Amino acid sequence: MKYNFKKMNKEYAEEIAYQWKYRGIYSFYDITADEDDLEEFLDPDEWDNSFVVLNEFEQLIGFYSYYFKEDIMWIGFGLKPTLTGKGYGAEFVKAGIKFGIKNYNYDRDYLMLAVAKFNQRAVKVYQKLGFKIIDEYLQKTNGGEYEFYQMKLDLE
Q1: Residues 6+ positions from 56 with CB-CB distance below 8 Å
Q2: What sign for the dihedral angle of Cα 53, 56, 60, 61?
Q3: Contact 51, 113 (CB under 8 A)
Q4: What's the pLDDT at 144?
Q5: Domain-by-domain residue ranges, the chain?
Q6: Which residues in 48-143 belong to E strands, given as ranges?
Q7: Beta strands of the chain (E only): which ranges?
Q8: Which of 57, 73, 119, 139 is least surrounded by CB atoms within 10 angstroms?
Q9: Phi, psi dihedrals of residue 75, rounded to the nearest 5°
Q10: Residue 43 contacts residue 60 (beta carbons within 8 Å)
Q11: Degrees to nearest 5, angle at CA 3 with 68 and 88
Q12: Residues 94, 88: contact at Cβ < 8 Å?
């Protein structure tokens, strides 16, 4: 699959927020599941480091956000619900990492992500790509408190 990264805009943000609905336990990732997340996701002032991912047919298939804490890149992303669980995850994550490194001229030797601990499907994909769990923590979100992993990928 070909991946084309474009800046986030209102049309894409609203489509993702209001039309993308994940099944079962993965509904945790619905943007509308947390009012603060929804407000932030739809705020154009938050889009400086946010991108949509289109396929070769210019169809929206995902999004990426890049954050920097103490010069370390953190990635956050979502794959269109109809594409999850079908083997696209690893390729999608690799494409986002490659884009982020190139777009930001990122030259540090590692990057980070956070993932809900219950999402073992994603954790396995990240581990397959070389990510290592380096910490666990509790985070308040979606009206509750959830366990998360911090995962690190060495880029050497």
Answers
A1: 1, 2, 4
A2: negative
A3: no
A4: 83
A5: 4-154
A6: 50-54, 60-69, 72-79, 110-116, 132-141
A7: 4-7, 50-54, 60-69, 72-79, 110-116, 132-141, 144-154
A8: 57
A9: -115, 145
A10: no
A11: 90
A12: no
Q: Which two tokens stand for residue 127?
A: 């581990």
Percent of the chain with pLDDT over 70: 100
CB 81 within 8 A of CB 20: yes
Place of tokens 């396929």: 55
Q: Are 118 and 25 in contact (CB under 8 A)?
A: yes
Confidence of residue 65 (pLDDT cuts 50, 70, 90): very high
Q: Does domain 4-154 have CATH number 3.40.630.30?
A: yes
CB 126 within 8 A of CB 151: yes
| Beta pairing, strands 110-116 & 72-79 | parallel
Predicted confidence (pLDDT) at residue 90 exceeds the cutoff of 90: yes
With vertex at residue 147, the alpha carbon angle to CA 24 and CA 126, rounded to the nearest 5 degrees, is 75
Among 81, 87, 63, CA closest to 3 = 63
| Pairwise CA distance, residues 40 & 42, whole Å | 5
Q: Rounded CA gap, 1 and 94, in Å? A: 12
DSSP 71: T
Q: In the beta sheet, which residues pair with residue 5?
A: 53
Residue 125: count of CB within 10 angstroms of its CB: 19
Write down how long the chain is. Answer: 156
